[in-house]
Amino acid sequence: MRRLKVFKSLVKDSLNTTTHGSKKYHIWMAFLTFMMLVGMYCYSVQLDQGLSATGMTDRVSWGLYISNFTFLVGVAAAAVMLVMPTYVLKDIDFKQAVLIGEGLAVAALIMCLAFVIADMGGPSVLWHMIPGIGVFNFPNSMLTWDVLVLNGYLFLNLTIPFYILFRHYQGKKSKSSVYVPGAILSVFWAVAIHLVTAFLYQGLQARPFWNNALLGPRFLASAFAAGPALIILVLAVIRAFTAFKIEDKTIKKIAMVVTVAAQINLIMLISELFKEFYAPTHHSESAYYLFFGLNGKDALLPWIWTAIPLNVLATVLLTFHKFRNNFKILFFSCFILFIAIWIEKGFGLIVPGFIPGPYGKIAEYTPTGIEIGVTLGIWALGAFVFTILAKTAINIELGKLRYKK
Question: Where in the cell is it found (predicted)?
Answer without folding.
Answer: Cell membrane
